[in-house]
């Protein structure tokens, strides 16, 4: 048997040390991110399980704005007042979405738990075994009573499948996640910042209803909250969408 040269022994030993150090840093990053999400989760009365460590890390590493794919739409009209955008009228095309229905006691619990399930799907827990990529916004379909005075508990959290996956979306391993095709829709969108809960959503619905010239053209009991930042962020960028009647 040929003896291993001291030089090659050094390199193989050195590379294994580097790999160990990289793994240790990897584990430390996972722990740090998991504990941050767990502390945020407690604030929303949500338990973030340990098996979320890897999806959280994958999503965080791939959360570069340049890596995110925005959901395509056509801007039909922008209504402004004194330089401020009051709302936008947009056309979204027919598309496939990964959807999960949630019915927790509080809205924040529903979106956090729904988002975590979708994260697992995005982060390799799908029939392709691949990371699917982030699209923004992640949307939540909410419902109110006819008078728009109260929200119902049932919501749908949905992830728009990237363009390259629209024709053949990977199947979710989680049976709770359903792939749905949504029809082309015209929406009236108004931007707002901060946390999203029952109170802030009802306030935003009232504000947009008061601004729109013809709110009767829109559905009265179904709305969409579009989130451009993850539910763990404090100062979130959101939009409220009114859906024009078909």
UniProtKB/TrEMBL annotation:
<feature type="compositionally biased region" description="Acidic residues">
    <location>
        <begin position="17"/>
        <end position="28"/>
    </location>
</feature>
<dbReference type="InterPro" id="IPR011256">
    <property type="entry name" value="Reg_factor_effector_dom_sf"/>
</dbReference>
<protein>
    <submittedName>
        <fullName>HEBP2 protein</fullName>
    </submittedName>
</protein>
<feature type="region of interest" description="Disordered">
    <location>
        <begin position="1"/>
        <end position="28"/>
    </location>
</feature>
<dbReference type="Pfam" id="PF04832">
    <property type="entry name" value="SOUL"/>
</dbReference>
<dbReference type="GO" id="GO:0020037">
    <property type="term" value="F:heme binding"/>
</dbReference>
<dbReference type="InterPro" id="IPR006917">
    <property type="entry name" value="SOUL_heme-bd"/>
</dbReference>
<comment type="similarity">
    <text>Belongs to the HEBP family.</text>
</comment>
């Amino acid at each position: 048997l040929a003896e291993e040269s001291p030089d090659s022994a050094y390199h193989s030993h050195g590379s294994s040390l580097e790999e160990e150090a990289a793994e240790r840093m990897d584990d430390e990053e996972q722990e740090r991110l998991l504990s941050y999400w767990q502390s945020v989760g407690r604030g929303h009365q949500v338990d973030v399980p340990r098996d979320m460590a890897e999806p959280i890390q994958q999503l965080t590493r791939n959360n570069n704005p340049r890596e995110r794919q925005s959901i395509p739409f056509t801007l039909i009209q922008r209504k402004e007042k004194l330089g401020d955008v009051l709302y936008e009228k947009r056309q979204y095309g027919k598309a496939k979405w990964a959807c999960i229905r949630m019915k927790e006691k509080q809205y924040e619990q529903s979106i956090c738990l729904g988002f975590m399930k979708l994260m697992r799907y995005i982060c390799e827990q799908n029939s392709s075994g691949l990371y699917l990529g982030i699209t923004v916004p992640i949307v939540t379909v909410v419902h109110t009573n006819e008078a728009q005075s109260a929200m119902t508990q049932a919501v749908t959290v949905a992830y728009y499948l990237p363009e390259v996956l629209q024709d053949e979306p990977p199947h979710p391993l989680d049976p709770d996640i359903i792939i749905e095709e949504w029809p082309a829709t015209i929406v009236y969108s108004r931007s707002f910042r901060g946390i999203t809960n029952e109170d802030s959503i009802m306030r935003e619905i009232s504000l947009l209803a008061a601004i729109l010239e013809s709110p009767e053209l829109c559905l009265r009991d179904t709305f969409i909250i579009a989130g451009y930042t993850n539910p763990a962020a404090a100062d979130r960028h959101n939009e409220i969408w009114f859906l024009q009647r078909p």
